[in-house]
Automatic annotation (TrEMBL):
Biological source species: Trapa natans (Water chestnut)
Residues forming coiled coils: none
Annotated InterPro entries: HMA_dom (IPR006121), HMA_dom_sf (IPR036163)
Protein name according to UniProt: HMA domain-containing protein
Domain HMA: 21-84
Molecular function, one GO term: metal ion binding
Alphabetic keyword roster: Metal-binding
UniProt entry tagged with the keyword Lyase: no
């Protein structure tokens, strides 16, 4: 048994990000400016969101702030648009 030794916690094991301002990237099924407006409305009301970028052509929504990916996913899903976490290929 070793006393006085601490080991760093891997954030992937805890599910928590160590960054203060994480970036969450989503794929959102948007087809028009009305869809963009709906996403803007829900993100504008979400606590912890500092900024966001919406790319209609790529159907990509990038959110920065003190937010958890699952919370952003659930919030944007409330628009009725198909929403998933962005997968890098």
């Amino acid at each position: 048994m070793t006393l006085g030794v601490t080991y760093p916690v891997d954030w992937r094991e805890t599910g928590h990000s160590l960054r203060k301002n994480p970036t969450v990237v989503l794929k959102v099924g948007m087809s028009c400016e009305g869809c963009v407006g709906a996403v803007k409305r829900v993100l504008g009301k979400m606590e912890g969101v500092e900024s966001y970028d919406i790319d209609l052509k790529e159907q990509k929504v990038t959110v920065k702030g003190n937010v958890q990916p699952e919370a952003v996913l659930q919030t944007v899903s409330k628009t009725g648009k198909k929403t998933t976490l962005w997968e890098e290929s």
